[in-house]
Each structure stands twice: as structure tokens, then as C-alpha cells.
Design goal:
Layout lengths: L11 E5 L6 H9 L5 E3 L3 E2 L14 E2 L2 H9 L3 E7 L2 E6 H9 L3 E5 L2 H10 L4 E6 L3 H11 L4 H15 L7 E4 L3 H17 L3
Helix pairs in contact: 1-7
The structure holds adenosine-5'-diphosphate and guanosine-5'-monophosphate.
Length: 195
């Protein structure tokens, strides 16, 4: 996509990792202490979890709405994940970057690969759980997924890990405070070292 790649604009930070690894938790903590960072709010066809707000956590679309969005080029990237569609609206990303803000995208590995093709200067960060058993524990502790969806997400985790080498950084989310420190340090270091 034209207009999104450029030196003078804000950087793109992409955070991926299996469902339940702690992406949302870490990003929320990071945003409470770093300025000049905007979050790309994705659209999805999955149903909202309890407590999720339309327009804040996601834009919740019907499949028809989403497919219509694909047709009119509304998405910077999109992918199918565990039976649902997820996509990043292009408009918000372009506007934030043109305003000089860095944009953080929390997207799956397929989306991250698309972003890398479209914006090679994007910083790709992969969040890894300390173990698969701990990932399963966190997914269950969150109490948002049915057993079938938990199994789907654990299977997806193995697929996702096969992309790990394509990321600029791999960060293990074991101790939350340490992971938050490291994620903050990556963003600060990459900001100083503009490509
Ligand atoms: P994701 O956004 O990657 O799907 P969440 O941020 O929803 O994951 O986190 C999944 C669950 O794991 C939540 O209940 C969260 O509180 C918990 N969690 C996140 N990071 C850690 C951590 N470092 N140690 C223990 N539990 C964590
Ligand atoms: P969840 O249903 O747990 O919120 O998200 C499932 C997966 O979809 C996660 O890996 C999440 O990062 C990814 N995801 C969320 N938004 C997007 C998006 O806009 N594009 C892509 N490609 N993946 C997304």
C-alpha cells in the first residue's frame, strides 16, 4: 500500500504470539507509560468476550461486513484465525503514522508477514510463553474460551512458533514486570534508531 512506508513517519511495531501469551496485558501496561504510541484497533468476525467493548478492543463485524471491507480495500492486512477473520483498518494506521505517532499492531503471524512485505521497516516482536503448559494454564485462567476453542488456540500456537525466526525480537513473557521492561526497552531503542 502506498503512503504507509516512509522515513519521516511513525514506526510500525507488530506484536504477535499465541492467544493467551499475554499480548493484551503487556500492551496495556506499555501504553500506560509510553507516549506517542497509538494502538491499531482491529476488526474481527469473532464474538465479543465478556467485558470487550466494540470500537475499543475490536470493531466487531459480521462476516458480510468484513468481506465487504476486504472488497473495498479497507484493510491494510487481514487473515483467518481459528475460524474467524481479523483485519487491521488501513485508514487509522496511515493517519497515526502521518501524524508522527508510532503504531502498535497486535496481530497474528500471517498478518505480521504481510506487514513486513508492505512496510519492511516495521519492527516485528514475537511473544513466547515460558512453556506450552503455562500457555494452556493462562488460556484456561482467562475463562473466555470453550474447550474446543482452547484446543484450536493451542494447535495454532505450534503453527505460530514456526514463524519465530522471521521476527526481529523474541521475548519470553514469564515474569510480567520483566517482560514489560524489555518490551518498553525495545520500543525506546527502535525509536532512537530510526531506519
Ligand atoms: P493475549 O492477549 O495474548 O491473548 P492476555 O493478555 O489476555 O493474552 O493474557 C492471558 C491471561 O494470562 C490473562 O489472564 C493474563 O492476566 C495472564 N497473563 C499475562 N501475562 C502473564 C504473565 N507474565 N504471568 C502470568 N499470567 C499472565
Ligand atoms: P483473539 O481472538 O485472541 O483476540 O485473537 C486471535 C488472534 O488474532 C491473535 O493472534 C491476534 O493477535 C490476532 N489478530 C487480532 N487482530 C488481528 C488483525 O487485525 N490482523 C491479524 N492478521 N491478526 C489479528
Amino acid at each position: 500500500m502506498k503512503g504507509i512506508v516512509g522515513n519521516e513517519m511513525g514506526r510500525l511495531f507488530v506484536v504477535s504470539g499465541p492467544s493467551g501469551v499475554g499480548k493484551g496485558t503487556l500492551i496495556k501496561r506499555l501504553f500506560s507509560r509510553l507516549e506517542g504510541l497509538a494502538l491499531s484497533v482491529s476488526a474481527t468476525t469473532r464474538s465479543p468476550r465478556p467485558g470487550e467493548i466494540d470500537g475499543v478492543n475490536y470493531h466487531f463485524y459480521s462476516r458480510e461486513q468484513f468481506e465487504e471491507g476486504i472488497e473495498r480495500g479497507y484493510f491494510f492486512e487481514y487473515a483467518a484465525y481459528n475460524g474467524n477473520l481479523y483485519g487491521s483498518p488501513a485508514e487509522g494506521i496511515v493517519q497515526q503514522r502521518e501524524a508522527g505517532h508510532d503504531v502498535m499492531m497486535e496481530i497474528d503471524v500471517q498478518g505480521a508477514m504481510h506487514v513486513h512485505e508492505l512496510a519492511p521497516d516495521a519492527v516485528l516482536i514475537y511473544l513466547k510463553p515460558p512453556s506450552l503448559a503455562e500457555l494452556e494454564r493462562r488460556l484456561r485462567a482467562r475463562r473466555t474460551e470453550s474447550e474446543e476453542r482452547i484446543q484450536g488456540r493451542l494447535a495454532a500456537a505450534l503453527f505460530e512458533e514456526s514463524f519465530l525466526a522471521r521476527y526481529n525480537y523474541v521475548l519470553v513473557n514469564d515474569d510480567l514486570t520483566i517482560a514489560e521492561e524489555i518490551l518498553g526497552a525495545i520500543v525506546k531503542a527502535e525509536r532512537k534508531h530510526k531506519k
